[in-house]
Amino acid sequence: MGVPHTENGPVPGSPRPLVSDDCGQGGCVHVAGQVYLDTLTEWERILDGLLRSDGDIRMDLSGLTFVDVAGATSLARTAQRLPGDRRIMVRRPPASLRRVLELFWPELVAIEVVE
To answer: What is the pTM of this model?
Structure first.
């Protein structure tokens, strides 16, 4: 199940592919698109890469429009694997991710949502 395309690019309103780029020194990434079945493997690759950095992890998710429950679960599991008092600071996540985190992991202090 891929993203529907025309010769000019993705069909408007269709799921967006997941793209990421570094937003500074190690441990910081900007992610855009949508996290769902077709992009979950890439999302998990991004999260695994961030685990290898030192210090807190900063994720700018202002470019994400949707994260499904599996994507939220991957983020929560990554946070649970962080050693010591490290955290994942999530900037401007989509409402879907915020709701799932509040519902299923309200006590997970390793994820901090910032605006």
So the answer is: 0.83
